[in-house]
Amino acid sequence: LDITVAQVDNTQVITLRGRLDSSTSAEFESQALGSLTADQPRLVISFSELNYISSAGLRVILILAKKIRQTQGRLALCEMSPAIREVFDISGFLSILTVRNTQAEALAEINL
Amino acid sequence: LKIFLSIFAGLGLFFIGIRLMADHLQQIAGRKMRRLVGRSMTHQLSGAVFGLTAGAVMQSTNAVIQMLGTLVSAGVMDTRKAFPVINWANLGTSMILLLSLFSMNLLVLTLIGLTGVAYFFRLNHSVLHRHWVKALLGIGLLFLGIDFIKHGSSLLKEAGWLKDYIFMSGGSHGLNFLVGFVVTLLVQSSSIITVVAMSVVSVGLLDLGQGVVIVLGASLASGVNAWMLGNNLTGYARQLVFYQLILKVLGVAATGLLLILEALTGLPLLMTAIQLTGISPAFTLAVIYMLVQVISDLVAHPFHHTIEHALTRLSPPTEIEVVGKPHYLSDHALGEPQSALVLVEREQEELLAKLPDFINPLREDSVTPAYKVESLHDAGQKVAAECAEFLTNIADQHHSRDVLERVVLLRQRNELIRSLQEVLRDLYLEIQPIDHGESAQQLLHGMLESLHLLLLTLSEAQAEWNPEDMEILRSLTHDRSEMMDSIRRRFIGMEHTLSKEAQQSIFAVTMHFERVVWLLRRYVLLLDQSHLTLDL
Q1: Segments of chain B scoring below 70 in pLDDT
Q2: Which of B357, B448, B449 to mutate to test the interface with A (most CBs of A within 10 A)?
Q3: CA separation (Å) from B62 to B5, B82, B226, B488?
Q4: What residues of A are in contact with residue B365 (Cβ under 8 Å)?
Q5: Are B535 and B411 in contact (CB under 8 A)?
Q6: What is the pLDDT of residues B147-179, one digit of tens each?
Q7: Do B447 and A22 lie within an 8 Å CB cutoff?
Q8: Interface of A with B in 48-87 (CB under 8 A)
Q9: B134-170 in b/e burial notation, b at 16+ Cβ within 10 A?
Q10: A55:B449 CB<8 A
């Protein structure tokens, strides 16, 4: 798994590339939690180049969502392939998380 | 023919009596029996009393072994405590021999008469007394059977064919041993063959030595009977039957060697000691039968560690026995309802934590599971049943409102866990053998990962309740029927790319998925409710 962290204005943008599974989720969790330094963190996660996600990956997304909610921050997910989107849909995540098609839409949603 | 029918009828009455007595005494002890037995095994003395009584009442060490096998497999007791019970049960079966030495006419007549009076007053239909009445009838028939056998055996001295056999056998010990062995294998009871031998010896048809050899043959056959029973058994239950075989082989071999040594060298050993007491030949056979049991115990005792290790290697515990043991339930806690309820919750946490393993073999992102799904299911159902029984016992003993409310809640959770185990097993069996093709594979991946996440999250939430997790779980377990409906419609139209079998499987899998999510939602709501009850 390749994790790229970038700063766009006041928002952290994490781009994932490869597989998010039990062997890579711990690294992603630690990097993502490490990037939430602001008082009210804003985070966008882009799945544009992610080709596999397992329950371990979904679990980290849940942990991040919880953490951000506790600190009254904002989280948006974007650029999911149809396969990844189906996993999120079946898991019920689409009803509790903000998911947008493009990174621009996600950034706009977060900075509303 | 009259002799044969008399003995045959005696055997029939004996077996009907044994079955009636054992079945109805077990019913009297009811569901509490297992708990009582489990508790009684905490002391060596109580184990001995139980073994002696069970052997005497059931007149079949194999029946006692079957009962012990159930207890050991259920985790109520371990094999180390069960082995000595078998020794005592063997000795217990000899009680009938001592009783048969006395005339039982009066006892039989009294018992049958008493049972008749009970039937006249229709006590056999009374919920309170019916098992006692039928157990009493069983005891009466058992002794009546022994009386018939003794009577038939006493007529044997008139039987020409038996005289011919005795003449032809020329007192051959090998042949008598074989007769005792084979007839016991057929009749399945060494004690009843010993009763026949005692009768035949007492009327002088066979001499004492011949009778002793028949008893030895019968004793060995009872071990072989146990071994034959073990062919259908596995794990701990099989260890118990092998233990019985080892005991019998050691007992018969050691007693036989002592008797041979005494006969060959003239050293005053067993027979000399018995004859010094001046007891009758029939009584002597009863004593020999008992001595085989005692000697087997004495010989096996110094090697019990070696025997235990050998049995574990020969028949290791099954997966279900290993996984299907409750970790927390303990009868000692029943007196303190709050602690007992906490133990049930801990046990349910364990069961929930195992649910993700039901689908792990189907997932790409998982390690090879330690146990087969079928074993996890059977073991899980067993532990859940133990929890249900434990909760019933708590409710029986404590009637305060808060305890009963918690019992009801935990019972509902227990039922949901059992249903989850069943649906997840069905889901596994539905997916596992079928090639669903690439188009359906992605859908299955989504469903499995989703379920895995839900099961993990619920397991964590049960272990450590917090309102945020519960809110997330409530959201994640929303109704999926519309979503699953649309998936089913999508796959129905794919007959060109998906086999009929795969389509049917997808249909079943989506139904199972829907049901699991519904059950999880019910569980989440119950967790919320439990928390509210605790707060109150």
Answers
A1: 1, 26-43, 74-76, 156-163, 165-171, 436, 495-496, 531-536
A2: B449
A3: 27, 13, 6, 54
A4: 21-22, 54-56
A5: no
A6: 887 777 777 666 666 667 666 666 688 888 999
A7: no
A8: 53-56, 58-59, 62, 66, 69-70, 83, 86-87
A9: bbbbbbbbbbbbbbbbbebbbebeeeeeeeeebeebe
A10: yes
The pairing of strands A11-20 and A42-53 is parallel
How far, rounded to the nearest angstrom, does the alpha carbon of residue B442 sit from its chain's CA centroid? Answer: 45
Q: Which two tokens stand for residue B236?
A: 């701990």
Min Cα–Cα distance to chain A from B356, Å: 11
The predicted-structure confidence for B344-375, as pLDDT tens digits, reads as follows: 999 999 999 999 999 999 998 888 778 899 99
A11-20 and A2-8 beta bridge pairing = antiparallel
- Check B365 against A22: CB less than 8 A apart: yes
Q: In what order do the strands lie in the sheet with A2-8?
A: A2-8, A11-20, A42-53, A74-78, A98-100
pLDDT, one tens digit per residue, over B457-516 is 999 988 888 888 888 999 999 988 999 998 888 887 776 677 788 888 889 999 999 999
| Structure tokens given for A12 | 């952290």
Query: How far is residue B140's CA from residue B138's CA, in Å, rounded to a whole number?
Result: 5
